[in-house]
Structure to design on (339 residues):
């Protein structure tokens, strides 16, 4: 048995999440619904403008949210990232440890500033992100832990790493190390903007293909150039031996290498969509790592991501994970249609 069920690599960002109105985005000329890289000065100006708005801080970054979800369900997890030796980095590492995740940052942090992501959530539950990468922009081969990768069942790669040349190179090398050690590889496209503006870099990271691809419907269509999801299902198979496509209120579609499975959605009162895709991936990989089939993993991931959408913030309280496990696997009536 492997030491870790999941090793993830990605940007370490302290999430600063605020509830805002549509008027705030318009007044600040912020493009809604995507992640935009900004300077620290620009981010500080926006945070100052948000004084008085309801806010919440947590250690984050897409892959961090995923690995924390898996850990909270009970998996042994490791996160490779780049943190600075500053107060923000101190907060990040404490929060990561509290979630039960080990990290290369335990062995030292560099000079500079820890990255931060300003997450703005509008009343329709859509999340918009303005990110200052800080020291994360320099994530590189130096942050990889080859022995940890080899000792893991899955390596999970965050698509956002494609924006940095050193991050992209590290992702490519991490995948090579995983494949050489017989470790399954998983990658998330992370955001439609990554597919739109960094397609060639993502293609380099994917290489000859990954074992599992995570994406949403918009990303799947953008990558394949298809107008119809059914066509996209075929077009994704050359780059992914299996995949999970989230569809929001329409549930999800899975491909396990042989069969397409449709996962029914859960009716929710949406509050905040931030972290929903990350939670889906974390719950899904946890479930697979303990031997569950794709439909069962999809059921767990679907309910978990629905619960995240119902609350403010990208993660759930630790005790909520045990409740979700009990609900999914003790109640076989949870709807999953398989075709």
């Amino acid at each position: 048995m492997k030491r870790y069920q999941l090793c993830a690599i990605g940007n370490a960002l302290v999430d600063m999440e605020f509830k805002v109105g549509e008027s705030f985005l318009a007044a600040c000329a912020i493009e809604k619904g995507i992640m935009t890289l900004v300077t620290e000065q620009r981010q500080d100006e926006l945070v100052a403008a948000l004084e008085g708005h309801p806010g919440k801080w947590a250690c984050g970054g897409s892959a961090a949210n995923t690995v924390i979800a898996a850990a909270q369900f009970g998996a042994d997890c490791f996160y490779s990232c780049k943190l600075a030796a500053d107060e923000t980095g101190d907060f990040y590492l404490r929060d990561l440890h509290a979630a039960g995740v080990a990290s290369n940052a335990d062995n030292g942090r560099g000079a500079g500033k820890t990255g931060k992501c300003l997450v703005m959530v509008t009343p329709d539950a859509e999340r918009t992100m303005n990110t200052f990468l800080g020291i994360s922009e320099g994530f590189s081969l130096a942050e990889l832990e080859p022995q940890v990768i080899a000792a893991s069942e899955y390596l999970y790669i965050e698509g956002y790493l494609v924006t940095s040349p050193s991050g992209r190179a590290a992702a490519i090398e991490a995948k090579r190390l995983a494949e050489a050690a017989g470790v399954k590889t998983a990658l998330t496209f992370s955001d439609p903007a990554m597919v739109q503006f960094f397609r060639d870099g993502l293609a380099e990271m994917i290489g000859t293909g990954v074992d599992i691809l995570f994406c949403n419907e918009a990303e799947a269509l953008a990558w394949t150039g298809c107008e119809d999801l059914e066509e996209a299902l075929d077009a994704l198979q050359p780059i992914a031996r299996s995949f999970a496509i989230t569809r929001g209120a329409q549930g999800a579609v899975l491909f396990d290498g042989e069969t397409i499975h449709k996962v029914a959605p859960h009716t929710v009162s949406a509050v905040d969509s931030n972290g929903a895709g990350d939670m889906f991936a974390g719950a899904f990989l946890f479930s697979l790592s303990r031997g569950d089939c794709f439909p069962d993993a999809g059921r767990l991931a679907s309910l978990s991501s629905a619960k995240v959408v119902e609350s403010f913030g990208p993660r759930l309280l630790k005790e909520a994970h045990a409740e979700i496990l009990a609900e999914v696997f003790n109640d076989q009536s949870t709807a999953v249609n398989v075709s």
